[in-house]
Design brief:
Elements lengths: L11 H12 L2 H6 L4 H10 L1 H6 L13 H15 E3 L3 H4 L1 E3 H8 L21 H5 L2 H4 L9 E3 L6 H6 L9 E3 L1 H14 L8 E6 L2 E6 L5 E4 L2 E3 L1 H4 L4 H12 L4 E4 L2 E4 L4 E2 L3 H14 L6 H10 L7 E7 L2 E6 H8 L11 H7 L14 E2 H6 L9 H8 L8 H15 L11 E2 L13 H10 L5 H10 L8 H9 L3 H4 L6 H10 L14 H7 L4 H15 L4 E7 L2 E6 L2 E6 L6 E6 L2 E6 L2
Parallel strand pairs: 1-4, 11-15, 12-14
Antiparallel strand pairs: 2-3, 5-6, 5-9, 6-7, 7-8, 9-10, 12-13, 16-17, 16-19, 17-18, 19-20
Helix pairs in contact: 1-22, 1-23, 3-11, 3-22, 23-27, 25-27, 26-27
Length: 585
Amino acid sequence: MNRETSSDPAGIRQLEKYSSAFTLSDMEIFIFPDLLYPLVLANIMSPIVWKWRDDPWFEDIEKKGFTYKVNRIKQFIIQNYVFNLDLSTWGLTTKTRELERFRDFFDMSVLRQSNALFGYEGDKYYFDIDIRKHFGLDKFTTDVIPYWKTETVEAMTAFRHRENYTTGAGECVSLSALYAAAMFIVGRIPLEKIFLIATPLHSQNFITEKEGLITNNRRIVTKNMWFNGTSLSEKARRALENEKVTIVSHISGFIHTVYNEATINPEDYRMFSEKLKGFLRTDISDLIFINFLRFKQKYKKLFQYMCECSGKKRYISLEKMFEYEHTSKYNLSKETRASLVSEIEGDEFHLSPLQGKIMLNDIEDIFCDGSGCSIEEFRAEFVKYACGMSDALLDEMFGDLQQFTITEPRLPDAEKFYIKGAFPAINPENTREEIIRSVMELTEKSELALLTMYVYRQMDMIDWIPYIKASMERNPVCFSEMEDMLVDEVYSILKDLPGESIYDGNRLALPDEVWNFKRGDGLEKAILLADFIALKYPGANLQIEVSDLRAVLRYRTEEYPFPSTRDFRKLITISGRDYNIKDLS
């Protein structure tokens, strides 16, 4: 499928893309994948993550190794941001509305490859639990779907102002973009090594430093963790094991499973693919086999372990040993197994071998030289100790073992038409000011740089119509919570909110950001009030005049003034879905 339509005389597609740069819903990013990395760059340009460098938590971090850096970043994010997928945060839309919005330039049947709410069935886990019930959508008609907008770092951090929140928050794509910015700014990891991976139900990053690292929501997953068989790694594995990768996004560009065109550097994509595939596979070793038994619990009952207590041989089922793992700081790995055994009650042990169970000690002797082996080599030795294990069960177990040790990611096909685009040459040694200047200077030559300015909300450098369009058409929460009120009542509420924006400088929040975090500049409040009126009285004619540090909304014969710190001179006219912006001299 070609990404661009053969003609776009009315600029519909471009307007929708630039407008989507403000709301960044999951569906918008799927259709406009070139929006994903601009969010990373916008977070890098933001002052928020740069302040982390001065936090005592990160003292002297630039002198530390890679593992130390990522663990400090992980812990800081865990302490300061929670995962949030609440339906009420950014409101609801409908399949019908979204299909109508994009139908002129996108094959809507393709959504079945990407979005669980439009019919995608990649990860059966979600369908086993009823996906609409899982996401809290069962109380609505099947046409209703959530917006699930991706938050900027400003919006993520502003969650601390919401009721029942004490920290920041964000959904998985937001956390991916935050992690990427933090890895670059605080961890000093070059952007060339940071890849964002989007699947239909998840988003995570892959860092190509050393043997590789995955950031997964608020946590990190090393290669050892990927294969440790814990419940945390089981959750981390789910997306890449079960879902198709729809987008890989990088500083050099993106590649998309649907579009025939790609902008990512093909050599960078080749390196990423090889590195990720290497991360997701391992040889069999004694430790990996123990981890597999922890991961696939139905096979634990097949094994027993022999140890010596006071010079006498004692036997215990592996099931029982794994039970004790749950309440112990030790586990079955050889390094801590003796300590785990010492915590087990004496009456759990048997004086004679347990009939019909395979001796784990014998299996571990297969790896006596400490090296790993292929699954075929391991099976050839394993059957010697299988104690009459049926061929069917043996096949099943080794099939599961192969899936555990080798995950084949379903990446976008590399056979694409590659389009080389310009991107800012920035590195971890640059200052924030140098990075902002590099992006700004490239806006006339680079779509990536221009989209970054839209995501960053740098209103004195971009067209305002996409912002007004996003504000009026995709910010339902501020209306739904006040729809029974009169305009004067809403105006009174807005006047009493703190007059501070969550964005610095000449950047603007969206109406639902103002409402969710109960604060905003006067211009932002005027736009929220306009959104409320437009939703309550469809087709209303509205005018917002911004000048002399003041924003005045005019509706019918009434004026609703707000003081503003934004130094703009604009006349905004809204009539239904017709928007006009005029510069005032």
